[in-house]
Amino acid sequence: MGRNTLLQSIPSKMKAVVVTGYGGTENLESRKVPVPVPNENEVLVKIYACAVNNSDILMREGGYGTDTQSSQKAGWKREAISFPRIPGTDIAGEIVAVGANINPACLGEKVVLFPFTSSGPDGLEHMAKDITLMSSECDGGYAEYIAWPKELCRPMPLSSYVESSSFIVSCFTAWHMLEKSKVVPGEKILITGATGGVGSYAIQIASKVFGAHVIALARDLSLKEKMIELGASEVLSYKSTTLSDDILKAVGAEIDVVLDVVGDPLFSTCLNVLRNGGRLAISGAVGGPVTQLDIRTVYLKHLSIIGCTLGTRKEFDQMLAVIREGKIQPLIDKVFPLERAQDAQEYFKKSEKFGKVILQNEMKV
Question: How far from 145 is each of 10, 15, 39, 84, 311, CA to CA, in Å?
């Protein structure tokens, strides 16, 4: 490691799972790769847990499309991915080495990592053109080690690596959607994809932090009681043929804000149930990225459509503080060892899961 200060002996090679090209899970390959060396302003983090996200799947599948062609395979920035690439954005681990400019007093700290770098100023860092997201523009957490700027490391919010890793992108995205939508106490919030990572955390944040009245939409009602425990007041199935009427009847009024991660299948319903002046915040399109829009609905109802991706460092810190207070609980569906990343991603895509899927590295005692 040269001039870097070490907490423990660092091997020259590490175990990692890499994406070798666009395609199915057969393009996830276990390899031995060099351990990254932190630069002067970075630390080396030993990774103990990394959550699986939709962004990991979409990166492998090339599912983001380009600005000019929605079907073109591309990464998160809608540009070509440089393969091989180590996926994973949700990292919890321990600082085990530091670069030349970093005080070695941080060695041994248990941390979670803010998932991207950019030159954007405070409050606008997520909008900078040079944003670099783990798992897409740079290597991420399906590995044993990662080098990352020390200024983007935060103390773990909980004592468990697995639980702490579960919040980073899904909960962060949900928090940003609510902040950007300017939700106020008492508003009626409709959340689509409510059993997924973003949706299930959005239920908790909207109800327990923002004081909203939450209506959750899910594929079926088998998890209704769990969503009510999280803070939903009503839970409805989006397979209903009278969904708009069901929502309005359940609430007794039109919706103030919709948080949507589904996209095309529910897009018209989301617009229909919003009150005049309502807001639609979108952070995903798991059901389909291309839809038809009657523009008249938008301007005649004075609707705001808000695009949301990631968030700010301030929001990230606010989220972690609320987690430490116990207002948001970790939601873990299943934990896999890193070597079973293929199985983890395949399981992740199953609709019946509830909460996060985590990859875990063995801890040495």
Answer: 10, 9, 14, 16, 25
